[in-house]
Amino acid sequence: MTISLTVNGNAHEVELEGNETLLDVLRALGYKSVKYGCGEGACGACTVIIDGKAVNSCLIPAPTADGLSIITVEDLGDVQKLSVLQQAFIDAGAVQCGFCTPGMILSSKALLDRTPRPTEDEIKDALDGNLCRCTGYVQIIEAVQLAAERLQNQTA
Asked: What is this structure's pTM?
């Protein structure tokens, strides 16, 4: 079976061989920010954005991704020009080992896109399901608050 999907604005035709998940397909296409963590949708390491919503790509059977447009963290910025959100994570000390960071950033982006001025409880709710074993979450929440503030200042 062949599926078509768009990742970060790039069209891909993918031949499926078995029971692949969207995570498997994205990794095979070279999107390394999408991590394999638990394979059960419990850790958030495989988070991507589909239709403005942060989802666990390990839970999505690849055939159901046919025709979808997907955003990974590679779409947000690069080493030369980080996104506001990526820079806020660095500035707030929210990046430790980096394993959870792409998922945290994408969950935060989905939140900020729909709620530009989130409360702390809204941030916690948006990040629920993204596990971090390094930072204790305080810096991550501060990073999202910092990014929200900076984004508001850009539009003001």
From this structure: 0.95
